[in-house]
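Deliverable D5.2: sample structural annotation.
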Amino acid sequence: MKEIKLTPYQSIFYYEWLANPSRSDYNIVSDNIISGELNKEKLFDSFKNIINEHFVFRSFIVNQDDGIFWKKRESITEENLKTLLVYHDQPLSNEDISKIVSEPFDLEKDIPARFHIIKVGHQQYRSILVFHHILVDGVSTQEFWDKLSQYYNDIPYELPSYEVQAQMHQELNDSYHEILTTQKQQMEDFWKEELQDVKNIDFTFLKLSTEKPTQSNQFKPYISEFTFSYDENIYNQVKAIRRKHKITPYLFGQLVMAL
């Protein structure tokens, strides 16, 4: 099977990681409380099965002369499972939690996912899922958790094979390239129409720093932050649009700023 190229958006995350492999600000964290009797082995087995069955988790990135690709990796074994799934039989300090969620991923070697279960009381557990943003966003993180629940509760669902998922990824990638190169105006027109009823958003621009990198401090971070507020009626319109198109608040903000 041929290797599958990263999508344009995935490539952005990869290049940013390549410039600074120690960064962890693209770690996506899902922090939940589980109440009731917990079958730890079954939960971990559910996690392992999801990782082994999904294309992006079952792949690693290779950087070649002819491009950047997803390449199939071997299935997770019980031995390397220990680095992905960790059970803590007592509560952790805030410092320990911070280390868990901020540890960077190596996108060329690691499976960019970690799962920690922390016992915090009698039949009370805290679950922390950590992913790299190159694999998931706010919407797909919830879908991952839903799949995990289905596995754990023996609710059947169908998932295409790795090869079929890879082909779907390639088709999606081709579609992205087509859209980004030939349909820019159509995209702008679509979102202008979708957002035309969301009016009177009061943007207050707050420049935290406008110092741009120079040759001597080219890796020094600088921030331009924009804050805004809107009333409850506008909020409800925004929420309806987000749900309709399954986009995150971050992406919605980008759309507003771009248009």
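Annotation notes: Confidence is low (pLDDT under 50) at residues 204-210, 215-223. Residues 4 and 170 are 6 Å apart (CA to CA).
The annotation will be released with the project's public dataset once the embargo ends.
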